[in-house]
Amino acid sequence: MREFEGHMKGDKHRERGGGHKGRHHHGAQTFRRGRALEFLERLNVSRTTLRQQLESTDFQEIRPMLLGELKAIETVIDQFTKHFEIRELEEAEEQAEEKEGRE
Question: pTM for this structure?
């Protein structure tokens, strides 16, 4: 009888542990991906702001610095998207830029 009880306890433990781990891991992975996408969006906002500042006459005195910052942020965005294999947000932004260019 003890053998059977031990087997039952083991099954319950496996059921709880296995199911919980799978859900938890997937949830954490989704959470981290969401945070990565949010950070990428902030980087893209910074890039857009720098581009707007480059076009403005108010910022002509610091244009070389703005160009350097823009180049740096574009490098970070490129490395970030490659490292985290983020494609869909980058593609959406490219489509938005193409649309802006047509208008």
Answer: 0.58
Structure tokens of 9?
């306890």
Cα distances (Å, whole numbers) of residue 84 to 29, 50, 79, 88, 99? 12, 24, 9, 12, 26
- Cα torsion through 62, 77, 93, 102, rounded to 10: 40
pLDDT of the chain along its 103 residues, tens only? 444 444 444 444 444 444 444 444 567 778 888 888 899 999 999 999 999 999 999 999 999 999 999 999 999 999 998 888 887 555 666 766 777 777 6
Contacts of 45 (CB under 8 A, 6+ apart): none
Contact yes or no for 54/64 (Cβ under 8 A): no
Lookup: tokens for 91? 């593609």
